[in-house]
Amino acid sequence: MAQKDKTEFSDIAQSAPAPDLLNEKPALPIVVAQPRRTQLRRIVFAVIVLAAMWWMLNPGDLFSWIIGGPTVALAVAAVLVLPASAPQHVSLSGLVRFAFYFLTQTVLGAIDVALRAFNPWHILQPVFVTRETSLPDGPPRWILCNALTLLPGSLTADIKGASLTIHLIDPDLEPDLPELENRIRDLFSLTTLDPSP
Amino acid sequence: MSVQDIMGVGIMVLGTVFFLAGTVGILRFPDAFSRLHAVTKADNLGLALIALGTSILAADGFTAAKLFLIWILIAVSGAIGGHLIARHALRDKS
Description:
The structure holds two protein chains of two kinds.
Chain A: H1 2-15, H2 17-23, H3 29-33, H4 36-57, H5 65-81, H6 92-118, E1 127-132, H7 139-150, E2 154-160, E3 163-168, H8 177-187
Helix pairs in contact in A: 4-5, 6-8, 7-8
Chain B: H1 3-28, H2 32-58, H3 61-93
Helix pairs in contact in B: 1-2, 2-3
């Protein structure tokens, strides 16, 4: 009996993925590897968010969906082709704190670069620096890259694993990477490494 | 002109100053990376101010939310686009 069960199980295990591999066109491995329910949830979520955005930009305009419908469909397809990120828990209070910090820094960054552009005697001495981030791969690291680009004086030029190549418009404008990382940890409810705020 | 109009138009004028700064930066700055600093940062704030000024003039919650959405979408695409151009320029160089 036990022997039979075992055989059945191994039969199912071997035969189940086979039709997919034989009959379907080769897809990106990440799409194949995902369970069907997660895929469905991603599709529904993407459709709702994208359709809501389109509706917000063109409220009450039914004809706009001639463009909007296919656009949403293409965007959902793009979401499915891209690998899913590991689920993240975003803390709401952390989001408010991060948004406030980010907005202030964005304004400072813009004022700084505007002053440099308008000052006729200012000569730029840009440098590249390489920094290691301690943030985990996925959304925390992407947010770090994009936040760095909008922060005063820094621009993420390249990212390879945990190593960031940052372009500084002035060598003095080294960004406070540990502080930014801690704020992103706060945003994603990750454990803060350095207890000092 | 009401106080609301003056505030809205004033903020929009300030926004155009940042757009101008971004353009001056593109023309003046020495390399692609420094120019990206000007475009991503200055234009981002310029757009934020113009959206804020327009929201004040419109005095309508839905329009304000819509302008905020537009700003978020452009801010995110600006930062990602800037990063992609920088990465390409860097890998070309090395």
